[in-house]
Structure prediction request, 166 residues.
Amino acid sequence: MELWRRGRAVAARLWHRHRRELGAFGVVGGVAFVVDVGLFNLLRFGGDGLLADQPLTAKVVSASVATVCAWAGNRWWTFRHRNRPHAVRELLLFVGMNAVALLIGLAVLATSHYVLGLRGPVADNAANLVGIALGTAFRYVAYRLWVFRRPRGADAQGPRPRPVGV
Prediction:
């Protein structure tokens, strides 16, 4: 019971400290999620299904477009208080971390589709959602640790983020 209370206290402190950042990350992620899943389904099942028989290619295309959307949202909103002057380096790190997250998603989709033989819209979308969830957890940690780091010498709390719209 004591361990449970301590765990809740730590979680509450982390939430209090990072709620604005986590909320913005969630909104940006939600937009990227809609782009990723929507484009994946359009490429696989929409109209003539441009990539109907190529689920992994469809996933690479949809995740790549979603990555560009997510980078812009995270750079200029979620982690704007951590912006560094080296945007190209930051973008390369961002793309690298998203490539790892994409590999996580591709592994889940490939396992479901090719190893387990679970095919069709429901199975492919379920595998896609599991891969996105696992990749999202990895991305948040990776962005905080490596991509949108505080500049050296910044205090522990960093500058106070401006309210949205200011």
Helices lie at 2-45, 55-78, 87-115, 121-147. The chain has a mean pLDDT of 83. DSSP finds four helices and no strands in the chain.
